[in-house]
Amino acid sequence: MRIATLLSLSATFLATSVFAQAEQAPIDLANPGDSADGKYIDPDELDVGFLYDISYNLVDKPDSDVQELFNGEVIILNYTFHNFEQEEVSIVGVGGQFVDPTNGQTLANITDANIGPVIIPPGDFRVFQQRVGINLPENNYLLAPGLYIVRGSQLALIGTRTQLTIVSEKPISLFNPQFLLLELLLVVTLGVAGYFAYTTYGVDYFQTTAKTAKVQPASPSADSAVDQSWLPEGHVKKLNKRKAK
């Protein structure tokens, strides 16, 4: 009975330990020295560099040397990480920068974010994603993503390839609901203004024109329009006789 109890307690302790490791708090990427995975080190200071291959593409974007990004959209970087180390490595965070393509100066930082950890055994690979919201002044940038990698007790920020990007404002579609609402408001406004102008000025104008067209002065007859003063007297008499008949 005691042996069974001890085995049960041992199993419970083991399960609790594994659970505690799984629920370990994520590394503070800004202050990695406070975590259990050791301090942050510059990759250039490593005695032996990381053996890896990192590639990525932008989801729903065409493969191109220059990517056009629009403010307000969220881009997704789809990574493939190959581990050529003799030991497993873990991806614990993502970050990066937008830099000036002419001089390499950092213009904006991509917010660091914890992921996983994504554990990659030796000789294996993993696929994972990073979401980046775009909210930048219109300009040309180099997108320079970075990955936080743990190998043993070493934590390092590893850079990946850069991507030339053009950031601009998203064009407004003719079928955009907001644009359609503006069009509708404009049509209604013009309609109300036209109706008001017609009822205020148009009705009176057309009524006045109609009355003027109805009241026309009588045109003189053909006979009265003839000036007989210059005609010979005999000719005038003949005309009068014709009228009498």
Features:
29% helix, 9 strands, alpha+beta, disordered N terminus, TRAP_alpha, 245 residues, 2 domains, six-stranded mixed beta sheet, Immunoglobulin-like
Walk me through the structure:
This is Increased recombination centers protein 22. Is probably involved in a pathway contributing to genomic integrity. It comes from Wickerhamomyces mucosus. Keywords: Endoplasmic reticulum, Membrane, Signal, Transmembrane, Transmembrane helix. The structure is a single chain. With 245 residues, this protein is an alpha+beta fold. It has 2 domains: 23-168, Immunoglobulin-like, CATH 2.60.40; 172-211. It contains 3 helices and 9 strands, in the order H-E-E-E-E-E-E-E-E-E-H-H. It has helices spanning 2-22, 177-214, 233-244, and strands spanning 52-58, 66-70, 74-83, 89-99, 106-120, 125-133, 139-151, 154-159, 163-168. The strands form 2 sheets. Strands 2, 4, 5, 7, 8 and 9 form a 6-stranded mixed beta sheet that branches. Strands 1-3-6 form a 3-stranded antiparallel beta sheet, with no helix packed on it. The radius of gyration is 45 Å and the shape is rod-shaped. Residues 1-24 and 33-40 have low confidence and may be disordered.
- Summed up, the domain count is 2
Number of helices: 3
Give the CATH topology of the largest domain.
Immunoglobulin-like
Q: What gross morphology would you assign?
A: rod-shaped
Unreliable spans: 1-24, 33-40
CATH architecture of the largest domain: Sandwich
Major beta-sheet overview: 6 strands, mixed
Mean pLDDT across all residues, rounded? 74
Count the E strands.
Answer: 9
User: Based on helices, strands and strand pairing, what is the structural class?
Assistant: alpha+beta
In terms of quaternary structure, what is this? single chain
Amount of beta strand: 25-35%
Q: Could you estimate the helical fraction of the residues in percent?
A: 25-40%
Overall CATH class of the largest domain: Mainly Beta
Q: Give the SSE order as H and E letters.
A: HEEEEEEEEEHH
